[in-house]
Amino acid sequence: MKRSLRPLAATAVIFIIAYAASVLQFPSMLSTRVLGNFLTDNAFLGIAAVGMTFVIISGGIDLSVGAVIGFTGVLVAVLISWLGVHPLLAFVIVLGVAALFGAAMGAAIHYLKVPSFIVTLAGMFLARGGASVITQDSVPINHEFYSAISDLMIRLPGGGRLSFIGLLMVAIFLLGALLAHRTRFGSYVYALGGNPVSALLMGVPVARTTVQIYMLSSVLAALSGIVFSLYTSAGYPLAAVGVELDAISAVVIGGTLLTGGYGFVLGTFVGVMLLGLVQTYIIFDGTLSSWWTKIVIGVLLFLFIVLQRIIFAASAPGEEKPEKA
Amino acid sequence: MADSDYVLEARGVMKIFGNHVALDNVDFGLKAGEVHALLGENGAGKSTLIKILTGAYQPDGGGIYVDGTQVSLDNPLHAQTFGIGTVYQEVNLLPNRSVAENLFLGHQPLRFGFVNFRKMEADARVILKNYDLNIDPSSELGTHSVAVQQIVAIARAVQLSGKVLILDEPTASLDRNEVERLFEVVRGLKAKGLAIIFITHFLDQVFAISDRVTVLRNGKLIETRALDALTRTDVVRLMLGKDIAFSGATDVEPGEAPNEVLVEFKGYGRKRSVLPFDLTIHKGEVVGVAGLLGSGRTEVARIMFGADPADQGTVSVNGKPSAIRKTTDAIKHGFGFCPEDRKAEGILGDLSVRENIIIALQGKLGWFKALNRDEQMEIAGRFGESMDIRAASLDMPVKLLSGGNQQKVILSRWLATDPAFLILDEPTRGIDVGAHAEIVRTINRLRDEGMAMLVISSELDEVVAYSSRIVVMRDREMVAELRGKNINPGVIVQAIANNPDEAVA
Known about the structure:
- The complex is a heterodimer of chains A (325) and B (505).
- Chain A is built from 14 helices and four strands.
- Chain A has helices at 6-25, 32-41, 43-57, 65-82, 87-111, 116-134, 144-151, 164-182, 184-194, 196-201, 206-232, 243-253, 265-285, 292-314; strands at 139-140, 153-155, 161-163, 234-235.
- With 505 residues, chain B is of the alpha/beta class.
- Chain B has helices spanning 46-53, 76-81, 99-104, 117-130, 146-160, 176-191, 203-209, 232-240, 297-305, 327-332, 342-346, 353-365, 373-386, 403-416, 433-448, 460-466, 489-497, and strands at residues 8-17, 20-30, 35-39, 61-66, 69-71, 84-87, 110-111, 114-115, 164-168, 195-199, 212-217, 220-226, 261-270, 274-282, 286-290, 312-317, 320-322, 335-338, 421-425, 452-456, 469-474, 477-483.
- Chain B starts with 7 loop residues before the first strand and ends in an 8-residue tail after the last helix.
- Chains A and B meet through helix 9 and helix 10 of A and helix 2, strand 8 and helix 9 of B.
């Protein structure tokens, strides 16, 4: 097996074992209802994590994701509820705003040579601050289009429901996988993460690719914000605080190397599902504090970073090159 | 000569950095189907010329001609469109991607807008076959050896450019078999009519594969000649620019009874860096190290000081077996090391002269015995005076000093720790004549005071002037140890060139 596949395989195995163990304890966890809710409840996280996967494979990080989700939710709610804009037009507007926002961050990262960590940290404060300036309160959305979408679902045997937003997440994952693994853009993303100097010498359009990567991440974060507003039927400026960190965890647990260059979009899907499993288990248990979720995620994350370290250190070809004369 | 003779030509190329002339009216012509070696010591202008030929730099005068037509090359990618491809010393590919993708990145065959992996890997297989590489094109590049990666880099360059191939020290991190493999590839390409520029520090390799050679020195063209009319000694002489016949012998009296042994290295070496060597260093002696750039001179120094730990052999200090795994071990044994690249590895530019001088001593004393300001001033002042460091104040940032004065600061830094054994790598590079003389004087004074030193230098006259013994490095191997009457530039040049039959005038 290719070494880059090993962390992903490990995640998949852990997911299956953990799920099997959960089912042994709570047999009702093996139902289409629980599986359907897995997708619905994690839809916004999953969509944001797809964008984060591209950013991390390229060797960067995007800390603005959670704030963009919050900002998008507020903007959509305000456009629909206060200004009477049709939801579809509101979606187009917020996706456009997010694209510009991401492009600006990407341009700053490339042209000003500022680390992505700093640029997106600034982006995080901007977006979160902007959302809070628009309104401090939760803005409810009561639009027939919203209730129509919420009612859109495929009923599964056994009482399960595949919601629109759950299916949207799956579709985004499939499109993301296609983009990452089957297009030139995807190969440029991996090239940047592998060695930016080589990438430049090999003719990769580094500036354009960097801008596109952060545009993609912000647009998907905005889509995630839309999904979140559909999920909660409201926009709240403090929504989705820290979701960027959950997304990063899902990406890393899904087998993407935090230093860039290696990773799979579908691995992130398994990562998101594993996080969802932990939450669901804690809900089923009922006695555990929901903060245990954080502890389990922390342990998993640490384990995976160690695992990747071992896999990539052990199979590095040859030894270090001697110092240059 | 007629234009059509040359595939790629530089005519009267000038390049000036600030007030330093890096290339002075250099002509260079490359024919199809030849391997043309470009030689010169550090600072000779080789890399500047290459960067101009690949479009990384723009010339300040003169012109570049491809097939006799003047062109202006904006950047390496633009040069590629004229058929000029480059392979660098560091493999500039993507170790995290497949071999096929490395060959085709940016030019992958598409089908319906998506990368057609099947076609890409089939095409890659055909290309790899031309190079006798029997590897899976879908395998990760990083899992292959550096030699294979280097051949893939060549394949990509040839694939995308196909007329001129520039090999910039491609063999620097390869072992002998791998070099031979690479050469076979180069010979094959030459037979296909490619024009190849080959840059290396290894003379053996120059003679093994090149047809013609161009030697640069101090930014000037010295010679372009067919290689079969030249001997090794000729080439070394052209590179170093020494008129051997008139060089005098050493002014150090040979034959003194050696003092007691200070450090003894036995079978000391490091894989892919320096072949095992034996060297004994006595108190009060200066061992000079001569050799061309890239011969392993600096590596020897770094291994001795533990900057790159040795992986074989033993060392004993004062007769006791010791282990030098890291630099702090070496400092504990009383070693000091002034590195070659003063700016990157020596001075701490933003710290003051005083802090630069006391830092090694403070390191030796440890965290808890901080030198107070008065002690620091006292120590810095003492060395400032004895070394004649010309600084407006001991508190000014050391980066504002001239190169010679910076070098004196680094020397003072180690002298403050009262070392028993001092390693100096190119102590006089890039400093003015006055400071140069002073450093040579200091080396002589320290030797007389009983300090042992190992001094690496490209200046043969200089090595001859202060060394009690000279070891010669070639191709990462210590090949000769010269003493007494043998310490003169002529013998050194011969030892470097490895040509014992040739008489020196």
